[in-house]
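hiii so um. not sure if this is the right channel but i have a protein structure encoded as tokens and i wanna go backwards to a sequence. like what aa goes where. can anyone help
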């Protein structure tokens, strides 16, 4: 995973450049966590469009275990935009297509980076 901080957007961006193993998935998200803690940043853009082996188990781990833990460490709201491919979004069961837009951890899946960034910007305005 390629991780960078965009000061202009106050955003941590993580981009998967290929499909990964379970261990690489955990290592990539650990790198995002480290960057978020370093910059005190609760706005994330996670680009998964190049990962074609997305599994539903990894989706559960990220949204139900990992993100709430990071949010507690940051001690501020955590807002995450996941960029995904249309086929992946269509393959999710209804129970996993859910997005969380209230509470300390919020996330949404988007197909387009522009709409994803707009969603994150709007979330940041609400915080200000």
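sure thing!! here u go:
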């Amino acid at each position: 995973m390629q991780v960078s901080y965009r000061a202009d957007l106050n955003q941590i961006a993580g981009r998967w450049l290929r499909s990964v193993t379970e261990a690489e998935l955990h290592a990539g998200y650990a790198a995002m966590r480290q960057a978020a803690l370093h910059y005190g940043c609760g706005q994330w853009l996670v680009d998964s469009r190049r990962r074609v082996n997305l599994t539903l188990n990894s989706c559960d781990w990220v949204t139900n275990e990992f993100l709430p833990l990071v949010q507690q460490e940051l001690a501020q709201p955590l807002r995450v935009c996941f960029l995904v491919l249309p086929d992946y979004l269509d393959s999710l069961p209804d129970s996993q297509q859910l997005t969380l837009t209230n509470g300390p951890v919020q996330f949404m899946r988007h197909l387009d980076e522009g709409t994803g960034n707009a969603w994150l910007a709007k979330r940041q305005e609400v915080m200000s």
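oh and The CA atoms of residues 26 and 45 lie 16 Å apart.
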